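Lab meeting, item 3. Inverse folding demo.
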């Protein structure tokens, strides 16, 4: 027999390498899967950070609701301010709180009903009406106000804050709001 007719014998290592699939595509698939997983986890972890950064721009405060003060008929013949309390509902996240605030129902310069906040525009003290002097007098720093809420004297830079009112089914309704203190213009803060 001639040596030409015999096929050359391959080594065992050459045969096993040719029969096995290449490990290179498997490594690239696992690397792609790991990269995709990292991107997904990074995106999920960045959502709270983005919400934290954008929260001041997209937040909503509690909508100011109307609160009943009383029947219009009980205020028709008032000569001095009448003290009333209103309940205000605050929603802060999941927490709901109800607070009670004092307001004064009085008549303005046009002889129409007006509702005044009892919070002093100077530093936030509660202002009582002193019927003997026919004035609102702040006990903290001596600010005095006329029965319609206009500033007479003292450190406050503006008169008492009037609140928005409406009439509904014979009832006087008010939208209670808080205003910035120590400023001359009435600025809503909450």
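The presenter then showed the designed sequence:
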């Amino acid at each position: 027999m001639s040596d030409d007719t015999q096929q050359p014998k391959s080594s065992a290592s050459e045969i096993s390498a040719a029969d096995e699939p290449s490990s290179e595509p498997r490594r690239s698939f696992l690397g792609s899967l790991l990269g995709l997983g990292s991107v997904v986890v990074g995106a999920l972890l960045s959502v709270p950070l983005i919400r934290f950064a954008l929260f001041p721009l997209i937040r909503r405060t509690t909508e100011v609701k109307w609160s009943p003060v009383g029947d219009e008929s009980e205020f028709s013949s008032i000569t001095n301010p009448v003290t009333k309390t209103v309940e205000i509902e605050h929603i802060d996240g999941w927490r709901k709180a109800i607070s009670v605030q004092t307001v004064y129902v009085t008549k303005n310069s046009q002889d129409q009903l007006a509702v005044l906040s009892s919070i002093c525009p100077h530093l936030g003290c509660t202002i009582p009406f002193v019927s003997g002097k026919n004035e609102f007098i702040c006990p903290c720093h001596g600010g005095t106000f006329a029965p319609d809420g206009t500033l007479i004297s003292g450190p406050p830079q503006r008169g008492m804050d009037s609140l928005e009112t409406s009439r509904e089914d014979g009832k006087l309704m008010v939208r209670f709001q808080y205003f910035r203190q120590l400023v001359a213009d009435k600025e809503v803060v909450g």
